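Pipeline run #58 for the internal structure catalog. This entry was flagged by the ingest filter as a single-chain record with no existing model, so it goes straight to prediction. Upstream metadata was stripped on purpose; only the residue string is passed forward. Reviewer on rotation: M.T. Logging verbosity set to normal.
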Amino acid sequence: MKRDPAAGTLIPRNALVWIIFSQFALLAPHLLRLPLWLVLVYLGTAVWRLLVFQGRASFPGRLVRASLALGGCGAVFLSYGNLLGLEPTVALLLIAFAFKLLELVKPKDAYVLLFLGYFICVIGFLFSQDILFVLYSLFTLVLVTTGLVALHRPREDRFRLGSLRLPALMLAQAFPLMLVLFFVFPRIGPLWTVPVKSHAAKTGVSDFMRPGDISELSQSDDVAFRVQFEGDIPPKSELYWRGLVFSVLEEGAWRSLRYNELPGLELRPPAVEPEGEPLEYTVLMLPTQQNWLYSLRYAQPAQRGILSTADYRLYSPVEIEEQLQYRVRSWPVTALDPELSDWRRETELTLPEQDNPATRELAQRLRDGAADSAAFVDAVLQYFRDEPFVYTLQPPLLTAENSMDQFLLQARRGFCEHYAYAFVVMMRAAGVPARVVAGYQGGEINPVNRTVIVHQFDAHAWAEVWLEGRGWVRIDPTAAVSPDRIELGLEEAVAAEGSFLANSPLSPLRYRGVNWVNMLRLRYDALTYRWQSWVTGFDGEEQYRLLQDLFGSIRAPVFAGAILLSGVVVLIPVGWLLLRHRRPRPLPPEQRLFLEFCEQMRRQGITRATGEAPGSFGRRVAREAPQLAGWAMQFIDAFEQLEYGGAPRDAAAYRQHLAGLRQRLRRVPQSESER
């Protein structure tokens, strides 16, 4: 490796420090989703580059740079198992961002690095658009811009915290125009799609269910969605948010019907006559990378782009890769499918052959003692109440074969999916059509803004049975075992065993008993809901509605005029603030002395041309006035040394050189000055 002794002087010390600060600030938001060894990479490159600046190390050669690049790709592959997907791609980009610091030789290299920093700042929004992350991104934006501004100030050899002032002022000046463009600039859809986050955290209820799946999800305190009702909020015991309907049991797991399994007459839900007063509400759903949506019983979407399935679920034709806000009307008391088709009846009665024989025998015994299907449902629920069943987040593992026999007759400890699973198997074994429904139950009411916060730990499974003359009826066997789970929520239901959010000791939800902590959490959640509703949820449809309210009809000339007018209205006060009382900055002392030199030469009949460099002017003085040649060139050499960085920049040396320049200006040859 060859050392370039001048390389360290091409990037000012102040700019280099701000560039390194911005690199670590841009890395910080990704630490929880990317390998921790990336921190060591960033520390290593930063130390190496600082040693180069101090002259104690050299820049890496081509072989070393190639080895680092290959090693980085290999490390990402070992960490993720592949190089495809959003997170591995971001990891590769951050590694390249770190290694680019080792190629930071000239200002053009710094430009590439800083512009890449702007791009990485934007990439963070693929993972989060939370208000705190937005504020942090503004901070990183100021840091990167500070590095860019410092790069244009070669005299700043020392680190200056005051370098933040100008970038922060630039951002404040741009904010009004940014605000106007947010509301009036056309919201164009994405020109490309982003790979699904294959290594993301828990995203919600899955499209299949085995015993233990939902209990694992209930250890997460993440928000699944928020709901705001237009009227009164129903009691918590009535908040059953349907998401998936499981009608097929195979290989020990429940799953929903696939589209190609439905006959033509079953593709659409039959006509339903709504009963009772509807509930109107808005759901703000966070990304799930799934298609199903959540709503109360018998929901009809109040906007385009949302479909209804044959089993009365809401469905999105595209995966939910970003937050989705949709309006819904529900009629919870409406009878669904009072007449059941033969195909649907057969589907909702099918069980694997020779599976769970003890459960089948128990179901048949209870059915024989019941007058009808409704009485049989009551008998099974009474069985759950009378026997020593336990509702727990720590259920024992069940064998794959005859798991319900083991659960009902031996373990008797389970979560909601265990009871829903067993209940539906018993119903079908006795000839009663039944199916499992998965979603969420309950939710936390935020008194600050009257929204219902549904967390991942509110995930729940229950059953629907078909009864003659009543259609599909919701039955929750968990309520028979643990009424507190439905009335009060999961935390109260498992308070005795202390398993609520056991894996999240720092979650603020564990400290709801501390009033000030709980109030801060709820106020922040209310602020988050406003942010998600008014800012991140401001899509093309909302923009069209806003502009239509303002201008009546939306036509191209009106739209273009609105953009131009709003831009002018914003820029006029900004321009006035920038230009009022604007005074030229005082010139440095050496430049004032140079202007005095130019004035003396003008009196001698030699006028400096516009844009003429000091060196060129000095040589022309020497040619046109040979008697001044030695004095003029000495002055010009001293001025250029002081002005263009050849002399030391510390205060004492600067004053010494300035005094020398002033003395040379006063030592004009006497004969020539008199002439």
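catalog note: The chain has three domains: 7-169, 208-515, 589-674.
catalog note: The chain has a mean pLDDT of 85.
status: ready for reviewer M.T.
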